[in-house]
Each structure stands twice: as structure tokens, then as C-alpha cells.
Amino acid sequence: MDFFEVVTTRHSVRAFSAAAVEADKVRQILEAANLSPSAGNLQAYEIYVVTQPSRRTELAEAALQQDFIASAPIVFVFCAHPARSESKYGERGVRLYAVQDATIACCFAMLAATALGLATVWVGAFKDEAVRRVIGVPEGIVPVAMLPVGCAAEQPAPTSRRSLGQLVHQVDDGGENPKHQTQNKVDSINSISRLPQSF
Ligand SMILES: Cc1cc2nc3c(=O)[nH]c(=O)nc-3n(C[C@H](O)[C@H](O)[C@H](O)COP(=O)(O)O)c2cc1C
Questions:
Q1: What b/e sequence results for 143-158 when a residue is b if at least 16 CB atoms lie within 10 Å of its CB, and e otherwise?
Q2: Is the CB of 77 under 6 A from ligand 1?
Q3: In total, how many domains does the chain have?
Q4: 12 and 75 both lie in a single domain
Q5: Which residue out of 9, 64, 99, 122 has the highest number of ligand 1 atoms within 8 Å of its CB and is therefore the one to mutate?
Q6: Is residue 47 part of a domain?
Q7: Do residues 57 and 124 share a domain?
Q8: Long-range contacts formed by 51-55: CB under 8 A, 24+ apart
Q9: How far apart, in whole angstroms, are the C-alpha atoms of residue 34 and residue 32?
Q10: What is the extent of the structural domain holding 129?
Q11: Which one of 12, 84, 114, 189 is CB 3.0 to 4.6 Å from 121, fit for a cystine?
């Protein structure tokens, strides 16, 4: 699948069939995550792979009863490893880079799963301590995102997006000081966008 097909066909799926995800696909997803960029190439994240049904159910409970999580045959839990980033970047590594590293790794995994024809949904709403207990992570490791993956058992409706005009600020207009966005410049960005134009 072409990259832009991947990003345009990806939609959050919240119902999964019981079909297992083949081991080679799991490997490809993890390899893709491992290729994601990270601050200082420290890879300040850890990935926990959960397949056991009872544990998936516990993860769903930890995620404020989002029961669809248990229906996915495999759930990846991406955690920040702040100490790894702190070694080089101090407080900024702890507060920011470790979380970004985990987030980008999860994003790469999500897009890889999509490219493999699998369905995913990013899950960020959960009780940290409860998730930590379920997956048994050591002290200092912080769950950042869960990624249930499987075969879609629903066809989700595409979601809307803000227009680029609402999000993009054209800083440079040739002057010395930053000047934020004339509508014309932002409109010219909109016209080349692949994203939906309306919210
Ligand atoms: C940081 C973050 C947290 C999210 N948390 C949840 C969640 O807890 N439960 C859920 O069903 N979807 C969650 N989502 C998915 C969003 O609801 C979804 O991406 C958004 O509505 C856009 O829909 P789309 O993914 O189909 O494009 C989360 C997404 C992100 C990026």
C-alpha cells in the first residue's frame, strides 16, 4: 500500500473479529516501531505485547471499561522509559522526549498495521497504575498509549478534520518579524492538501 493510501485509509476501529494476527505481521509491526526516530536515538520507550484474553479484559477495564479492547487479539502497550532519556537530556528527556519517543513508535506501529491490512485504534484513556499492574512493568516505566490490533469487524465512518486554515500559521511573509497567516497563504496550502477541507 502506498504511504498516502495508508494514511487516508486508516480509521479507528473499535470492533475486532476473533482472527489472530499472524506472527510475521506482529514482527513487521514491531520492526516498524523500532525504525521510528527518537531523541538522541535513545529509544526511551518499551513495548509490551498482550495476547492472553483475561489480560486483554483487564486492560479494557483499566481503560475505563472500553470493552472493545478485549476483542482485539493483540494489544500493544507503548510505555515511556524516562530514565533512558534523562541520562542524556535531564528533565526535558523525562518530561518530553520519552513520551514523544513512545508516541512516535506507536504511530509507526499503527501505520504499519494499517499497511498490512489490519485495523487499529489508539487508546489513551486509561488508569496508568491499573495498566502498569496488568502488564507488570517495573517502577519508572510509564504507559503512554495502547494499540489494539486485529481484523476489523466494523466499517467505521471516516471522521472529519479541521481545515488546514484553522491549523496552519504561515509565519514568513518576507518581513523581519514573524507575521501569522494571511488567509490567502493558508488557502493556498489548503488547495494542495489531501485532507478534507471542512470540519
Ligand atoms: C492521544 C489519543 C488518545 C485516544 N484515546 C482514545 C481512547 O481512549 N478510546 C478511543 O476509542 N479512541 C481514542 N483515540 C482515537 C481517536 O478518538 C480518533 O483517532 C479520532 O476520533 C479520529 O478518528 P480516526 O482515528 O478514525 O481518524 C485516541 C486518539 C489519540 C491520538
A1: bbbbbbbbbbbeeeee
A2: no
A3: 2
A4: yes
A5: 122
A6: yes
A7: yes
A8: 51/75, 55/134, 55/135
A9: 5
A10: 3-150
A11: 12
Q: How many angstroms does the Cα of residue 38 sit away from the middle of ligand 1?
A: 23
For residues 103 and 168, membership in a common domain is answered with no
Q: Which residue has the cell 518499551?
A: 46
Measured in angstroms, how far is the CA atom of residue 123 from the centroid of ligand 1? 6
**Separation of CA 167 and ligand 1 centre (Å):** 19
Q: pLDDT tens for the chain, 199 residues: list them.
A: 899 999 999 999 999 999 999 999 999 999 999 999 999 999 999 999 999 999 999 999 999 999 999 999 999 999 999 999 999 999 999 999 999 999 999 999 999 999 999 999 999 999 999 999 999 999 999 999 999 999 999 999 889 999 999 999 999 877 777 876 545 455 554 443 333 333 2
Which amino acid, one-letter code, is at 167? Answer: L
Our answer on whether the CB atom of 157 is closer than 6 Å to any ligand 1 atom is no
Q: Are residues 54 and 134 in the same domain?
A: yes
Taking the whole predicted model, whether its pTM rises above 0.85 is answered as yes
